[in-house]
Amino acid sequence: NVSMQHVQCRVCCCLHISQQEAILEDLRTDIPVHFNFLFSDSHVEVISGKLEGIYAWIGINFVLGKFQHAHNDGDAVVEVNVPGSDQQAALVRKRTAGVLDMGGVSTQIAFEVPKSVSFASPQQEEVAKNLLAEFNLGCDAHQTDHVYRVYVSTFLGFGGNAARQTYEESLIKNTTMQNKLLGQHVGETEKTPLLDPCLPTDLQDQIGTSEQKLHVLGTGDFDQCRLRLQPFLNRTNEPQTSLNGIFQPAIDYNNSQFFGFSEFYYCTEDVLRMGGDYNASKYAQAAKSYCATQWKTLRERFDSGLYASHADLHRLQYQCFKSAWMYEVLHSGFSFPPDYKNLKTAFLVYDKEVQWTLGAILFRTRFLPLRDIQQESLKGVHSHWRHSFSFVNNHYLFLVCFFIVLLSIILYMLRLRRIHRRAAQRCSPSSVPWLEDGLGSPTLPINL
């Protein structure tokens, strides 16, 4: 985001360190050349998944107005033990929203932890230190009304595309091993395909490389697909853990709200057309129906334009798998109950796409008092216009003043010219009747 004085760059973690540094060096060289604002080399950095989660959490809650502590009777509130307070005094303030985000490679969760956390073991406490962030969004370090404790965890390899790749690699490995042990030829040709419950019914596909290719045929069994995917969550029996056995504080599912972005939205909306308020039962039923539908029928619906405009054949092919994966991550991985009612899948919030860069700006300016920002926003559109005008459009103000002065001068000169012309007309010979032509002396009137 090069429009601000602090520039942050999230470089894909899959890039080699030398490639990352080359990209950063290009930014350090080019930004001062093309943009006229204060900039130093330290303003470009590779942020961690934890920071990205914090920024995303701050951004969405700022847009939702969750940092305005003044609340009405109908607003959801939560009692918070403010981190950093000597007395650990309880504070009642607006309930913030949690964030779920599933991309192609990773999955992320971020939410406020209002109460103090207890740990099952010293090892768990040590791990939790890297997953819990405490920060003050207020005006200074001494005022704790805007201190937040947020849990953020990023799970590499648990995104939709990465999960499918891991699943396919497992199919190839297990099938190859069984073929060798039992002398079978499953998946080696189209006539002997491996049956895959995570693909739509009768969809033929090839997975693997040219050296180790496997032919698969979809059977479209959503429930069976879910069962097959559960081992890939790497859950453990330890308390307060989620995906991959990573520590996760308890969530008060009776008093919480979450927004699901990226794949959480695509899985519910692109094909199933169920984006928005999430209902696990209806979602599972719709996904089950989709998986069981013949691939030929799905193609006909696609060609007829019945799905979202940006849904492509890749989405159709792997919608069944991704629907099951999203469901398992949410309910088996993060342990959301099937009757949870406060999850909204979304692409836009208030008709705007909320990026983590907004949270980064707020985080970097966190010692500017939020209450002043809120008071400015309450002054209405006129105050906002004035603020923007004074700081953004000063050059327009100068130009307007210049043209007003120039116009005034021109009008004044035209008025003077008009006055002089009238004066000249009064003093001209033709306008004085008592002047005698050609004599140069006046003829005085005589009284008879």
Keywords:
single chain; 448 residues; alpha/beta; Nucleotidyltransferase, domain 5; seven-stranded mixed β-sheet; 12 strands; extended; disordered N terminus; transmembrane; ATP binding; hydrolase; membrane; GDA1_CD39_NTPase
Describe how the helices and strands are arranged.
Elements: H1 17-34, H2 49-63, E1 77-81, E2 90-94, E3 98-102, E4 106-112, H3 122-128, E5 132-136, E6 147-156, H4 160-182, E7 194-196, E8 204-208, E9 213-218, H5 222-229, E10 258-262, H6 263-269, E11 276-277, H7 280-292, H8 295-303, H9 313-333, E12 343-345, H10 356-364, H11 370-378, H12 381-392, H13 394-427
Parallel strand pairs: 3-10, 7-9, 10-12
Antiparallel strand pairs: 1-2, 3-4, 4-6, 5-6, 8-9, 11-12
Family: Belongs to the GDA1/CD39 NTPase family.
Pfam families: GDA1_CD39
Active site: 52 (proton acceptor)
What does this structure look like?
- It is a single chain.
- A hairpin with a 4-residue loop joins β8 (204-208) and β9.
- The longest helix has 34 residues, at 394-427.
- With 448 residues, this protein is α/β, with parallel strands linked by helices.
- Helix content is 41%, strand content 14%.
- Anisotropy-based shape: extended
H/I helix tally: 13
Q: Write the CATH homologous superfamily of the largest domain.
A: Exopolyphosphatase. Domain 2
Q: Uncertain segments of ≥5 residues (pLDDT<50)? A: 1-12, 370-393, 429-448
How is the largest sheet built, in terms of strand order?
5-6-4-3-10-12-11
**CATH C-level of the largest domain:** Alpha Beta
What fold name goes in the CATH topology slot of the largest domain? Nucleotidyltransferase, domain 5
Order of helices and strands: HHEEEEHEEHEEEHEHEHHHEHHHH
Count every beta strand, where a strand is a DSSP E run of 2 or more residues.
Answer: 12
The assigned structural class equals alpha/beta
**Approximately how much helix is present in the residues?**
40-55%
- Quaternary form: single chain
The percent range for strand residues is: 5-15%
Mean pLDDT: 83
Determine Rg (CA atoms, Å). 35 Å
Termini gap: 100 Å
Overall structural domain count: 3
Instruction: Describe the largest sheet.
Output: 7 strands, mixed
What's the CATH architecture name of the largest domain? Answer: 2-Layer Sandwich
